[in-house]
Design brief:
two-stranded parallel sheet; alpha/beta
């Protein structure tokens, strides 16, 4: 079994100076392309579904397929909720069987972000699910719209002093930081604040996450990895590649009615993009020889119950519900 939680892979990446790619799943073609790339590259991989994509992909319908693919994969696979902004999305992800979640409270006031993140951490850690959070704000459109406004770095970039307090008070497993990347396509050349990233890494000493990966150079990625980035989110480049593949196919065969053929073109294009980025992230080949990740591949990330026996899915749902109710009561809901 290769289904693991984020903590199982991200600390190995952090210690050994590579990054695990988090690639968004929109449909079965994306899923098969990403898994195909991971197995071809012998790379651990994170399969992510973003809350912003919920209108296009029903997680209750697709997650059983993702979990089955993950269990059969020859590399460690994380199923991750990307940019979960609502409590409902977090609970849906837990019930569906995600092994990791991101709670994104980056647009909230600092204290509210701390309090809500701490709630989510308590709930998720109870059932062995990893939590990523964001401090500062990575701009642009999560759905691929790109950088739509010019922002002051000091207003939106992650502050080191706040990050230290945030991690101490919330207990998150990793932190997404804002150092100059944007979601979607860049307008102009990206300029990352590597000095800030170095100071964040020195102060926090936990795996850092880079959102808005499309458009960065291999040099930028690898410098960020050397400064503590162990997870890199990547979506827009896959979407661009898929759309380009369809346009090229229709240009060659404008009268085609072969929709499955178009989807195959998309899948091949997406897989090439993912393979290229796994090489850039230096995760390619990690699973080609025995290493510390092999232990994570032997069991499910939803850890055994205190008695030492694995709980059923019904027991998992019960524990999630009980813990959620307890947390909500503490915060006056």
């Amino acid at each position: 079994m290769a289904l693991v939680n984020l903590k199982d892979v991200i600390w190995d990446a952090y210690r050994h100076k590579y990054a695990v790619g988090s690639f968004n799943v929109i449909n079965m073609e994306f899923l098969e392309a990403i898994i195909g790339a991971a197995e071809q590259c012998y790379s651990p991989v994170i399969l992510a579904i973003a809350e912003v994509h919920f209108p296009y992909v029903n997680i209750e319908n697709i997650t059983p397929a993702i979990r089955d693919v993950a269990r059969r994969a020859r590399v460690p696979v994380v199923i991750h909720l990307d940019h979960g902004t609502s409590f409902e999305a977090i609970i849906r992800a837990l019930r569906a069987g995600f092994t990791s979640v991101m709670f994104d409270g980056s647009l909230l006031p600092f204290e509210e972000n701390v309090n809500r993140t701490r709630e989510i951490v308590k709930i998720c850690h109870t059932v062995g699910v990893t939590v990523e959070a964001e401090l500062g704000h990575v701009t642009g459109g999560e759905g691929g719209k790109g950088n739509t406004q010019q922002l002051s770095p000091e207003e939106y970039y992650t502050r080191v002093d706040e990050a230290v307090e945030f991690v101490r008070r919330t207990g998150v497993d990793c932190l997404a930081v804002a150092v100059g990347t944007v979601h979607g396509l860049y307008k102009g050349e990206p300029h990352l604040d590597f000095d800030r990233l170095a100071r964040l890494n020195d102060a926090l000493r936990i795996p850092l996450v880079l959102h808005g990966g499309t458009g960065l150079s291999a040099h930028d990625f690898r410098q960020a990895i050397s400064l503590g980035v162990a997870k890199i989110n990547f979506y827009t480049g896959m979407s661009v590649s898929a759309c380009d593949a369809i346009r090229e196919s229709l240009k060659r065969k404008p009268d085609t009615i072969d929709f499955p053929g178009l989807m195959q073109d998309c899948k091949r294009s997406i897989q090439r993009v993912v393979e290229r980025n796994m090489d850039i992230f230096m995760s390619a080949g990690i699973c080609q020889t025995p290493n510390t990740l092999c232990n994570a591949c032997t069991g499910c990330a939803l850890k055994p119950t205190p008695s030492g026996e694995s709980g059923s899915e019904e027991d998992l749902i019960r524990r999630v519900t009980e813990t959620t109710v307890e947390v909500l009561r503490q915060f006056g809901y």
